[in-house]
Amino acid sequence: MQGLPLQFTNVSKAFSIKGKALPVIDNLSLDCPAGSFTALLGPSGCGKSTLLRLALALESEDSGSLRIGGDSPRSICRSGAVGVAFQDAALLPWRSVESNIRLPFEVLGRKRPDAAKINGLIELVGLKGFEKARPGELSGGMRQRVAIARSLATEPRVLLMDEPFGALDLILRRQMNLELQRIWSAKRPTTLLITHGIDEAVYLADRVIVLSPRPARVLADIPVSFSRPRGAELLRDPAFHHVCDRIAALLDPETSAASAAAETAALETSSVTAPAKTGTTA
Amino acid sequence: MTRLGDHIATGVLILLLLAAWEFAGQLKLVADGTLPPLSAILLRLAAEWREYWPHVGATLYTASLGFLIGNTVALTAAVSFCLWPVTERIFRGVNIAAFTVPPIAIAPVLVIALDGETARITLAALLVYFPTMTAAMAGLRSADPRAVDLIRAYGGGPLRTLWLLRLRAALPAILSGFQVAAPAAVLGAVLAEFGSGARWGLGTFLLGSLGRAEPDRLWGIGLTATAIAGLGYALSATLAARTTSLNRAVNIGIAGPEPDTASEAPVRRALLLAAAILMPLLIWQAMLLWADLSPIIAKTPMGVIDYLITGKTASSAQTRLLAALAETVPITIAGMLLGLGFAFALALLSFAAPLLMRALLPFALVTQTMPLVALTPLAVLIFGRGITVTLVITISVTFFAAFVVLAQGFAMIPKAAFDLVDAYGASTLRKLRLIAIPASRQWLFVAARLALPKALLGVMIAEWLATGKGLGNLLNQSRGYLDYGMIWAVAVVSILLSVLLYQLTPVLEWVGRSDRRSK
Description:
The complex is a heterodimer of chains A (about 280) and B (about 525).
Chain A: E1 6-17, E2 20-32, E3 37-41, H1 48-55, E4 63-68, H2 73-78, E5 82-85, H3 97-108, H4 115-124, H5 140-152, E6 158-162, H6 170-187, E7 190-194, H7 198-204, E8 207-211, E9 218-223, H8 238-251, H9 256-268
Parallel strand pairs in A: 3-7, 3-8, 5-6, 6-7
Antiparallel strand pairs in A: 1-2, 1-4, 8-9
Chain B: H1 2-26, H2 38-47, H3 49-83, H4 85-90, H5 92-100, H6 103-113, H7 116-141, H8 145-153, H9 158-196, H10 202-210, H11 215-248, H12 266-291, H13 301-310, H14 314-352, H15 354-369, H16 372-383, H17 387-411, H18 415-423, H19 428-439, H20 441-467, H21 470-481, H22 484-512
Helix pairs in contact in B: 1-15, 2-11, 3-7, 3-9, 3-10, 5-12, 6-7, 6-9, 6-22, 7-9, 8-9, 9-10, 9-11, 10-11, 11-15, 11-16, 13-14, 13-22, 14-15, 14-17, 14-20, 14-21, 16-17, 16-20, 17-20, 20-21, 20-22, 21-22
Family (chain A): Belongs to the ABC transporter superfamily.
Pfam families (chain A): ABC_tran
InterPro entries (chain A): AAA+_ATPase (IPR003593), ABC_transporter-like_ATP-bd (IPR003439), ABC_transporter-like_CS (IPR017871), ABC_transporter_ATP-bind (IPR050166), P-loop_NTPase (IPR027417)
């Protein structure tokens, strides 16, 4: 199964807080080609999650359009082609690990997947032996892994993740990053990852999008072209840190304006979908 | 180990209190023997068991059917309020009326409009409806919003969310609603038996035994009614404990946002408010149409207006009603304030001396599950027929709910706040003054809202059964004189009074808030 392209075109969205309009996303365009891995970085509250909620049809855009594989998010989500993992595992506490992973099938009204498939997923996220456990008996990291397994259960062609590793400690996070890379490389779903971890974004993604403070606009679009599979040694590579530092400068309110101007200049010399390899070495 | 020690200490204290009761009874310490020794009550109960069981059976039957029907309606309502929030706003008037209605005021009306058995079951169901409905609503809304998003993200609609998530998530809340509803069903059944001339039932049995001035018999009936109510409570509590442990495991306390009505068109808001006010009247009218009764017996909303305002009976009716209100309203407010004060003192006690509190709790629970009507004759025996008895009954019906709310409020104060003053070596008293009392202010108003309608019920029962004053007495007299207009008028006025007092608490809260000047 191939990934589906994901396109945001001139999307704007405002919320009304006590009757006043609060713009959250301002005329944002973003093109994620089929099978790509895009990471979204931005200051807290900048509207990253809203972007993802729009793609999940949990919110609707005020203007602009959003297409997944040329279709509307609602109909794509109903077809089961989209997998999702949130920062909070959002497991149903009364269901076992197996049964939680099966949940998307029940929501989609599909027939029960065979046990072998579910067991395969459980094994994939390293929870063998915990099939019958309830979420309450698992640690935070284990719960999050169940949520990842659940997001993969329907063999999604688009994977949307909102800080899925945010609640994990650094060591577990690294492990999960490796796992996610492996899973993604095998099935190549078009992936959109929202994260606060700059290194995580650079480590996993083909491309890092840095968003401005609210309302969200694309501040910089940074291609990351380290070869895959990426191993733990990449984390010690000076080139890796160079990319991370550039992004950190963009996110720091004090240096952000100057860095953004530099990035924009770099962007203007190329098109957004095929950006120049500014400062990255493969 | 310490937990076991606590349990043993609590058990010993309870036994001591029971022994004190027995001792006081044997020596006739309380009001010349109106508190009989526990052994005498139980012996008499055992000896008269044959006489009891048809009554117990009848009450159980009414209460169970009422429990079943009331809960079915409550759950259906909660689900529809959850799926279509606009229905909740349309039924808001009905819900407030269902919460505030003094059952004793509506019982005679139900008996007029429906046949005896239906009336009794209806009253039990009516008292069951509100606790279950609110608990179920809170439960359905408490579902983890992330899980709701997840289901929606896979294209699940409101129905699938309800089925896969909300109903199961609401189960512990629903069962804790049943804990309140089960004793309420028994109370409703006994109250209705009282007013409907039933042949069997603990209410009837109690009424028949009232004149005989045999405290041990009255206590026996009261304890039997309490045991039935307590059994329902215990069953629901056990079920609730089982489901809660699973749910609690990972749930985080984020409630879904309340629907925002600020941006709504004013016309729509006005229409919904009008619908909310008219709905109870519509149901009233519809019920009478369905029962097909003579307009002399069954008054429609227009009939009551005619009786009270426009008709030739109006001036006499108004005079009697106003005189009754002048007696009832002040004592209701006084009783409610005393009940709240008592609850507050008890909550402080439970904070300062948890062990003593745990021993007292079963006794407090008894006053709650013990149907009021069973309590009243006993209170009359002990306190006579003056104003004291009204106050005592009012306090005993109001304090428990208020206490639970306040104790919860105390429990929600962050431990760190106490640790801070502890670190400066504060005494328990100082901790109370510095932290617990200021922190519990907002809970006091929640407690007041819960207590007010109950206070009116307590006062009216005392007036009916004991003091012969006010609205309760007017209702009782009107039944005697077959003054149907007045029966309906009292029912309507007492509901309106209750709703008014209920709506008044937020205003008081606003006035009492010290930080409003800063804005």
